[in-house]
Every structure is written in C-alpha cells, then in structure tokens.
Amino acid sequence: QVHLVESGGGSVQSGGSLRLSCTASGYTYSTITMGWFRQAPGKEREGVATIASDGSTSYADSAKGRFTISRDNAKNTLYLQMNSLKPEDTAMYYCAAHPLMSVRTGWGMIRYWGQGTQVTVSS
What we know:
Elements: E1 3-7, E2 10-13, E3 18-25, E4 33-39, E5 46-51, E6 57-59, E7 67-72, E8 77-82, E9 91-98, E10 112-113, E11 117-122
Parallel strand pairs: 2-11
Antiparallel strand pairs: 1-3, 3-8, 4-5, 4-9, 5-6, 7-8, 9-10, 9-11
C-alpha cells in the first residue's frame, strides 16, 4: 500500500512563497510518476504539476513560471516550490502518485493520494 504524507502548507500574503513536501513510502518511489493536484471549495480537483521517474514535468497553465516541481529519489520526497502566490491559488493541495499521469489526468483515474495540506493566500 502506498502512503503519501504532505507538509508545508499554510497562510501567506499575495506575492509570497511556500514550499510543499510529500514523503512517500510503500513502493519503489523512483519508478512512479508523482504530482500535485489542488481543490478549491466548490471546484473540481485539478492538476498543478507532475514529474515522471525520468524527471520530465508537466504544469498547468496557471502554474507555469511560478511553481516548480522536483523530486529527491534518495529521500522518497516530492516538492512543490510556489512563488508569486495569488489568492486564486488558495486550495487544498494533494500529493498524488500513479504509474503514468500528467496534469490533464482526471483525478478519478489516479491511484494514490495524500491527505492534503491547506494553502491560503490573502490579498
């Protein structure tokens, strides 16, 4: 069973930065695609960024140029560096893992999820 634990959420003012982390266990971390999804109140869960085992990445248009996804296979840890945060980035952020996925993969298709970490950006 795959176990994902997020950390690093919090409250920040518009223009600020946060770094999310996700520690994974229960499978061969280096061979699976990892990603970050988010869900705002009343909205569908949407992809933010993903990173495959070979390091290739995909980003939502809203994240391009502001967010950076990375992974440390030695530590089984996934990161999301978020800069220039906006109030519309406010959401619950979820770590996800699946053999193959991109930000366009429907959330219902993704096999493994963390419990989520809240990000709140005030104007």
